[in-house]
Amino acid sequence: xxxxxxxxxxxxxxxxxxxxxxxxxxxxxxxxxxxxxxxxxxxxxxxxxxxxxxxxxxxxxxxxxxxxxxxxxxxxxxxxxxxxxxxxxxxxxxxxxxxxxxxxxxxxxxxxxxxxxxxxxxxxxxxxxxxxxxxxxxxxxxxxxxxxxxxxxxxxxxxxxxxxxxxxxxxxxxxxxxxxxxxxxxxxxxxxxxxxxxxxxxxxxxxxxxxxxxxxxxxxxxxxxxxxxxxxxxxxxxxxxxxxxxxxxxxxxxxxxxxxxxxxxxxxxxxxxxxxxxxxxxxxxxxxxxxxxxxxxxxxxxxxxxxxxxxxxxxxxxxxxxxxxxxxxxxxxxxxxxxxxxxxxxxxxxxxxxxxxxxxxxxxxxxxxxxxxxxxxxxxxxxxxxxxxxxxxxxxxxxxxxxxxxxxxxxxxxxxxxxxxxxxxxxxxxxxxxxxxxxxxxxxxxxxxxxxxxxxxxxxxxxxxxxxxxxxxxxxxxxxxxxxxxxxxxxxxxxxxxxxxxxxxxxxxxxxxxxxxxxxxxxxxxxxxxxxxxxxxxxxxxxxxxxxxxxxxxxxxxxxxxxxxxxxxxxxxxxxxxxxxxxxxxxxxxxxxxxxxxxxxxxxxxxxxxxxxxxxxxxxxxxxxxxxxxxxxxxxxxxxxxxxxxxxxxxxxxxxxxxxxxxxxxxxxxxxxxxxxxxxxxxxxxxxxxxxxxxxxxxxxxxxxxxxx
Amino acid sequence: xxxxxxxxxxxxxxxxxxxxxxxxxxxxxxxxxxxxxxxxxxxxxxxxxxxxxxxxxxxxxxxxxxxxxxxxxxxxxxxxxxxxxxxxxxxxxxxxxxxxxxxxxxxxxxxxxxxxxxxxxxxxxxxxxxxxxxxxxxxxxxxxxxxxxxxxxxxxxxxxxxxxxxxxxxxxxxxxxxxxxxxxxxxxxxxxxxxxxxxxxxxxxxxxxxxxxxxxxxxxxxxxxxxxxxxxxxxxxxxxxxxxxxxxxxxxxxxxxxxxxxxxxxxxxxxxxxxxxxxxxxxxxxxxxxxxxxxxxxxxxxxxxxxxxxxxxxxxxxxxxxxxxxxxxxxxxxxxxxxxxxxxxxxxxxxxxxxxxxxxxxxxxxxxxxxxxxxxxxxxxxxxxxxxxxxxxxxxxxxxxxxxxx
Amino acid sequence: xxxxxxxxxxxxxxxxxxxxxxxxxxxxxxxxxxxxxxxxxxxxxxxxxxxxxxxxxxxxxxxxxxxxxxxxxxxxxxxxxxxxxxxxxxxxxxxxxxxxxxxxxxxxxxxxxxxxxxxxxxxxxxxxxxxxxxxxxxxxxxxxxxxxxxxxxxxxxxxxxxxxxxxxxxxxxxxxxxxxxxxxxxxxxxxxxxxxxxxxxxxxxxxxxxxxxxxxxxxxxxxxxxxxxxxxxxxxxxxxxxxxxxxxxxxxxxxxxxxxxxxxxxxxxxxxxxxxxxxxxxxxxxxxxxxxxxxxxxxxxxxxxxxxxxxxxxxxxxxxxxxxxxxxxxxxxxxxxxxxxxxxxxxxxxxxxxxxxxxxxxxxxxxxxxxxxxxxxxxxxxxxxxxxxxxxxxxxxxxxxxxxxxxxxxxxxxxx
Lengths: 709, 406, 416
Hints:
Strand order of the largest sheet of chain A: 7-6-5-11-22
Mean pLDDT of chain C: 96
Number of strands of chain C: 24
Helix content of chain A: 25-40%
Mean pLDDT of chain A: 95
Distance between the termini of chain C: 7 Å
Low-confidence stretches of chain A: none
Structural class of chain C: alpha/beta
Strand content of chain A: 15-25%
Oligomer: heterotrimer
Strand order of the largest sheet of chain C: 3-2-1-11-24
Helix content of chain C: 10-25%
Strand content of chain C: 25-35%
Shape of chain C: globular
Number of helices of chain C: 7
Shape of chain A: elongated
Largest interface: A-C, 90 and 90 residues
């Protein structure tokens, strides 16, 4: 057990008016047996800081009972000193009527919990992982090339694995790229040859073509990758991975209604581009130069029967290809039939420029069918068009603007040797699941970053940027693993879960539930942590029925101690409610309620958690056995639009709650005593009603039957 | 299943419309700002957005039979607000110009009016007529004595030759208008077939004569033109020219009464009521023309374009009116040969203005009248500002999934 | 020897991402932000599309990353005055404008504001509400410190806040100061401002109180906005159940912004959801040219479209008239049904586009290429990397990508 803490109580910002600070000091000195107690009217000010600087010593925990831990983090931070913050300002002084007995009790209980936590907190000892600084880039298309070059120029060795014989991917097969610079008028050469040359000649980059990743094992800073080239296998140690395996065109064979396969003169936009690059636009059926070419947008995209999403670049590509037609065939006509013409950003200028051409015809409409005509022509049927309810076009060649399917929809690519399977988890369309929208690079496999069209459909220039961004994330994860720090979202956290394996029953819940696949099984079947894969969310800690998983500074034991630290009155008019809250979203919402001086029910004691997923149900049992009348779990939205930064935390909490409720039934405790609420960070205005209604409900239910036992 | 109508762009038509004033039309991206700002479009099948699409796509047949290009009065609000700078107002004007030439009978006269290259030819016709006339009459000589223009060319000759040509021109115009009327009917039927839910309102129950009277009343009142927002002065200028022209027309009629009823050949004194009416009409024309010309010069190419087609009519008016005043002024103040020569020049420009009427922009008075009449009978009324239309429930219904093979 | 420190101009989502990503690799990074708080435009959004999650959530994570990372140095209320030197060794002059509140002493206790006699329009709420001259920018402000708006403050002769502050944090005589930063590379993350809607008078903005812009709608929907999240008519405060959105209000328009602002369609879909979620009897109309919801955003469009209370009309509004009883009547062609509509609504929301906040010449010595649209692109080997909307109109995800990519390029450039 850690030493008894020093306790500092600030009476500023209204705390001194709301509660009796001298009584808090007496509590800390007496009941809590603090090693020292001081009150100060302005603890974060220069005098307060001076006072603290003179007192704090290595190894002795400090409890700061003042404002929210979300402010003044830099003021109350000393190297090698465990600091526990007790939020008397936002959670008490600013959200309770001043001078009330209830507020005093609340403050005292928060102080008790803070001291209890401090006593159960160790300074975390980092576990650096730094075997290799090399970056593996899988996929030699434009994003892979950009990632490889970026990482190499930043000083990292790179292995670039490409399954084709040449680098360059799709871009190398394009005639021109979309214009990328003002005035955004003319399609431009891709310059991919130069990029390939820079990559192949870079001393830090090893290029493996006709190669595939056969397996990937290990963790950031220490991956072991087996690459197969023909029959030959080689092993590479790498620190992080950029997954840039790109896309494939949607299978046009499934687009028979758009004439594919029914007429040789119905081709995909990819085939058309290659035709142009080869030098001559001609009808596959008879080699004649087409006079009229139709471009059919959303061929497979935005279609619930095929790809429900939009493939983003097809509109601009068809605009570009219509220009090819007009440039190469005098007096030709090019038609573009679109649902919505999507040329965002400066793409609008390119769109307008294409429209200048008298031989390019654009119209909104739904293409309902494409079929061969009687004399070798292709007939395009259009409905709901602005040209008429039902019209048709007779053309010589129809080009289907086919959508993009991420490579990860077909192939796990990295063949991870992870307990949770070989693939990077994807969304329903096969794109790697990410922490959309703020942190788009964060996949659910630490140290592995998707880039380019495998991540989202995007044009070539965006894919190059995306490669650079993913390379940065790869380098960053290598550096952070080497320092033993967590990556996003608990960046810099040095703690990691420890397993008291003697008591492990090998139930596998932790390994299965970890949202990031950080845990494998060791030879004996017990969980094996890969520390640098771990994001420190504590989902494993919440999952473990044996309570054998804990962090140095965050554990079931610590939380239990906090819950057990304060007295629960028997008075039915003074119920006690525990609110376990997500510290990223719900906790700041409590703070903002305080900042806005919203009044919260004094029966509620807030216990922040790293994530609702880290809530071990034993804590709920502990609470009830202590006589707590009700438990609120406040976390982020789950489901398709999940907002949990650990992806699955709140979802897992919900699932565990159903089990808890069965247990409650057995214990004859009303189910309503535990409720899970989704609360976004900005929903602070809901907190007064939310807490008071819950407390009122507990009053109606009457005291917890276990109270007093 | 019946074969859907085939769309066949006419690239030549696209080029021609772009050449004669609609060069920016391909920029249109179908936002409908133009129809929204247009103060004089009907609510059902409004213009000019659909005309822009048809013009971009070179759908010549639809446009030539489209009454809406004539319902448009060229206010220019659409061009001012068009986010693409596609200038719908100018495109509509170009379409009207093209339609006049297209409907022209005989067709070659239409071509003559379409390019400045033909100006010498246009002038040569009346000059040649005069040469032939004087040759037949036994030569040209300036009559002695007080200037009375009948001395040079008898009124009866002017009447016969002028009205003869007018009659031919009007026959040509009549054939063109008849085709146009039938074309509008066919166009309407095609639209109905293509878009049943958006079909125009039912035909108006009203006698033909009543419709004519109503349309004439509207035109006299400039009811549509007055709705224009962006180019308010244009309605005033048009009214000046319109009524000026009517007064001149009335004065000519009065002059004929003197001639045929009273047998007076002499030029009338300025104080004569007929002269007064004519001079007022001429002055109104001049004021209107000054306004129109200034307007077109001021607007500049950034906002709207004035084409040869526009300028031809303006100049024909200017020349006819200016030479008319000149003929009067020279007669009263100088006299002699100068007066007679001025008079001949005036006759040439009156000929140009009136005989080429069905082929110049002047024909708009025929086509617009016809289109307004047709529109009135078809129930295509001017929309009233501020009226609230219920939104059809279908407008927001989810799009049916596409891709199902039918 | 190249300077290893990096400068990020602008503390919005693009700048924050750039700075934090670079700092977590191990670089020292300076953020120079003109406003008194970080977060930029996104801090003023109520929710993000497509998840309808609050931007505060991601900002909180980013702020925590900054708080726990000593390598990030933030200057708020600061502007870059001049850039000298070149890639690898820039010398940047920063003007630190006076906050009049000592950040080391202010605890955000809030005792100052109630005594302040002067008011200012709250630009955080786009002028729809007022704050005192001394104010906390917003509830999640980083840094959580008050600031004084010198334009509104009555000056030292008033001094009421100075007396009220228990911590001696207020100094009304504070002067601007200059500091010089030596950095190896610069990210330009100066972001955007809403297109000036007063130039859209034909859509009724400025004439009718119930015609607002999309950024104002964000504030109306925000719990910490001027109406505490109630979507109402500004004219009389009545619930705004009938709401129309005009897409491309200023964007895709040669008379205004010739480019597409990329985000307005999605912003409108999101704001349609605000109305649908708030009012059972909602009646929403979206007037559009093309609905642009690329990638998986299409799912969001499909979901909003599935609600029968939202109707989409292909056709842009160009005439707006006052409606009897409040609100306005909007007029547009619904081209798929071939008729002109006049729809009475309580609120008309102009989906106004994004214009770049900073342009050519605003920062002397900054070596980037400015295009005719007002956006910046990098010059070869200049060491200055435009990110986010400084580069082109784009969304949060792309800004985050830009920032991450720029962090790499800056590190690449200054790698020893």
